[in-house]
Amino acid sequence: MEVLCYGSTPCCQVVQTKWKLVEKNFNSRQSRFPSFVNHGISCSNTVPRIDSMRFHDRSLSVPEESRRLKSFRVYSGTSDGYVIGSEDEIAGIDEHAASKILVPGLPDGSNGEFGAPISSCFWQWKPKLNVHYEKAGCENIGSPNVLFLPGFGVGSFHYEKQLKDLGRDNKVWALDFLGQGMSLAFEDPAPKIKEGERDMDRDSTSSWGFGEEAEPWATKLVYSADLWQDQVRYFIEEWNDCVFGFRQVIREPVYIVGNSLGGYVALYFAARNPHLVKGVTLLNATPFWGFLPNPIKNPRIAKLFPWAGTFPLPSSIRRFTELVWEKISDPASIAQVLNQVYADHSTNVDNVFSRIIETTRHPAAAASFASIMFAPQAEISFAEALSRCRENDVPICLMYGKEDPWVKPIWGVQVKKQVPEAPYYQISPAGHCPHDEVPEVINFLLRGWIRHLESSGSLSLPLLDELDSKKHTNAIARELEYIREGSKKSVMVRYFGSTVSLWDRLISYINSGSKLRNLAAKSQQ
């Protein structure tokens, strides 16, 4: 077995320590939406935790086996990259036979390592529009800035495992897109009645935005991809985060990471602002967004659609939205969706579930959903954004869960074909949200990729450290092991390099499938 570690604790300590069962505390932070009074912040609408959302266990945990120390290949992660272990530790190892890698678990205190503290913050970007974001590791001066963008229907909370872990040695940020998460409007953009009149439905959770006339600040508001990429640009270039008199601001290129919709926006942002991006990581990125034509790109066709996500909502759209929202905001429907997108049903999704429920109860949520669904497409397509990034030498890395029912592997392959130099890591079993389902693996790969770029290529890409340069272009399959809550778990990761033949892909697929079946057989013994 090979052990790779990117933590501050030397890997030899991990190897020599018996794994202990750790009871992890799942009491997450109570999340609340703010109300702004006299420019202050108060909190309300707390949603209690849901403790019954752990799916039936069908994980691929591997029973702990007795292994001799000499069977380990030890690597210790430092800021300078890999440092190979002693000769005694690696004596007798066949480099080509070593295909199993033990990657660090999440910092939960079990081995003396603790996650970085997370700060939850707000800023008023535009009138009546407050952006929520979370940050960690801002004290890591000189370290890379990593910005995470969430998928549709979630927020920065979906990257808690990255903030805590990567925030130990990077400056990490996560945004809530306007109209989602906790970046919802705190005033009604289109009230049903005028101020001063009695509103019998004032407490209705779906009442905001359903009036006949928009407020002046909301007349041009559309929750679109163009708005979100502009939000990201402002956050990087101009936003000043003043904490205890110390002004924290990015104002330098970032590594931007996006899942699903967040991946689409990340790529779109990089294509339009290549000078602000050091690299883009796509986590099962959706390859398209929006149904209506963009008014700038296709003005004539856009005129055929009289409404495109603005406020107020037309009466027909209001009725349609109320019907659809009643269905999709139902807790049972949300649980069903989570059941679809997580391949490993043993994954604890309590916090994700409760935070989504919390968002649906905000009075602005339903109308925001309608605006998002009917917003026009971005000015450039996903394929065009890929081409622009390649023309501007923006590095791209792909990390896709193979069992995603929505963004299936074929989409990752299509991206790889258009950007053949982009490293492509396919993870199995993992679904639509690999960063939350297998955070240990995603964090390991992200750290390695960032260090590879920071070193200008002198440090190898993850999983390629023992291969010579001629093999960097081939497809390889590796089994990655990690410890979670005292249990050992495994996934298969297939890497595709810059020039991968169809035969290489077929052989890699067969080999990884065989190893995955062996893992499943072991777990049933």
TrEMBL record:
Residues 146-441 form the AB hydrolase-1 domain. One of its GO terms (cellular component) is chloroplast. GO terms for molecular function: pheophytinase activity. Pfam families: Abhydrolase_6. Coiled coil: none annotated. One of its GO terms (biological process) is chlorophyll catabolic process. It comes from the Eukaryota. This is AB hydrolase-1 domain-containing protein. It comes from Arachis hypogaea.
